[in-house]
TrEMBL record:
GO biological process assignments: transmembrane transport
Cell compartment(s), UniProt: Mitochondrion inner membrane
Membrane spanning residue stretches: 321-341
Principal place of residence: mitochondrion
Solcar repeat placement: 53-142, 154-245, 252-342
Membrane topology per record: Multi-pass membrane protein
Keywords assigned: Membrane, Mitochondrion, Mitochondrion inner membrane, Repeat, Transmembrane, Transmembrane helix, Transport
Family of the protein in this entry: Belongs to the mitochondrial carrier (TC 2.A.29) family.
Record organism: Aulographum hederae CBS 113979
Record protein name field: Mitochondrial 2-oxoglutarate/malate carrier protein-like protein
One cellular component (GO) term of this entry: mitochondrial inner membrane
InterPro entries named among the record's database cross-references: MCP, MCP_dom_sf, MCP_transmembrane, Mito_Metabolite_Transporter
Length: 344
């Protein structure tokens, strides 16, 4: 009985403590709201510096930056995909140009057709760029702290490692949205009767998983991951390195960011285009009448394209790809840099 009584007393004391805490919180709420109303900047600053927000901000800033860039660059991405899919399996023949593809798109529909797949592009950025920039920032903070403990500075090797890891992890998470984007952008190349006519990215994801299985959402995941690692290596590692080198110059902070992002855009394009090409081919493919796919995987696709279309095909549309990647990298990195500054 005594043990039972002591348990009851302990429970009462705990309940009283909770009630008193709640009373105190409620009594202080009006004052907290008044303080926030009188000084919203301080209230916002306090929120931004909570442990949760400090961990989440790199991911939130990365996602917002990527979505902003995609809204600007989407028409160029549409032209890039159509260029990569033109003349599949044919080594010779007419070579499309960015201008001819753009004219064809506009002539066959409307100017807004250049924004086909925008919902998928935004979802991809919300997932992929949120993850890759967030992971990169998180990894770099850890590596920088580790280097500082050892009495060193984080160098290019650390930046490259963080970029490769962040890109690979983010690509696996974002592959379904990336697949939906390719399917939506390539749908117009099919005969009218064979088109899926997806109404949105959600419609595309649901129909692909229902008709082909959930695993189909990760079609082309291998080249997607390798492409993302190559792109991140070129973009984030070279951006971080270029910015570090430019700090020693007389250029202003904004000019440094702009110059570093331009350098990053070039290297990102150069390293990632062959993998982007193969990724597009794999994600676009559908089973033929015999039930077989044109390519069994990344290596098979590389081999067939090299034999049937020539090695130069992997770099077809490099100019368009660079015009797509470089501004996207520049807008993403500049916006992320700015958001990082205003939320620090």
């Amino acid at each position: 009985m005594s043990s039972s009584s002591s348990a009851v007393e302990a429970a009462k004391r705990q309940a009283d403590s909770v009630i008193n805490t709640a009373k105190t919180t409620f009594s202080e709420a009006p004052q907290a709201m008044k303080t926030a109303a009188e000084n919203p900047q301080k209230a916002t600053t306090d929120l931004l510096h909570t442990p949760f927000m400090r961990a989440a901000l790199p991911f939130l800033n990365g996602g917002l930056a990527g979505m902003t860039a995609t809204a600007v660059i989407q028409p160029i991405d549409m032209v890039k995909v159509r260029l990569q899919l033109a003349g599949e399996g044919i080594k010779s023949g007419p070579k499309p140009t960015p201008t001819s593809v753009t004219r064809e798109l506009i002539a066959s529909g409307k100017v807004l057709d250049l924004y086909t797949g925008l919902s998928a592009g935004l979802l991809r950025q919300a997932v992929y760029t949120t993850a890759r920039l967030g992971f990169f920032d998180t990894f770099m903070k850890t590596l920088t702290a580790r280097s500082a403990t050892a009495g060193n500075k984080a160098g290019f090797a650390e930046r490259a490692g963080a970029g490769l890891a962040a890109g690979g992890l983010a690509a696996m998470v974002g592959n379904p949205a990336d697949l939906a984007l390719i399917r939506m952008q390539s749908d117009g190349l099919k005969p009218a009767a064979a088109r899926a006519n997806y109404s949105s990215v959600i419609d595309a994801l649901l129909r692909i998983s229902r008709n082909e299985g959930v695993a189909a959402l990760w079609s082309g995941a291998t080249p997607t991951v390798v492409r993302a690692m190559a792109l991140n290596f070129g973009q984030l590692a070279f951006f971080s390195e270029a910015k570090s080198q430019l700090k020693e110059t007389s250029l202003g902070p904004r000019t440094q960011t702009l110059a570093a992002s331009a350098v990053a855009g070039f290297f990102a394009s150069f390293f990632s285009l062959p993998f982007d090409f193969v990724k597009t081919r794999l994600q676009r493919q559908t089973r033929g009448a015999d039930g077989r796919l044109p390519y069994s995987g990344m290596v098979d696709c590389f081999g067939k394209v090299a034999r049937e279309e020539g090695l130069g095909r992997f770099y077809r549309g490099f100019g368009t790809y660079y015009v797509r990647i470089a501004p996207h990298a520049m807008v993403t990195l500049i916006v992320a840099d700015y958001l990082g500054f205003v939320t620090k």
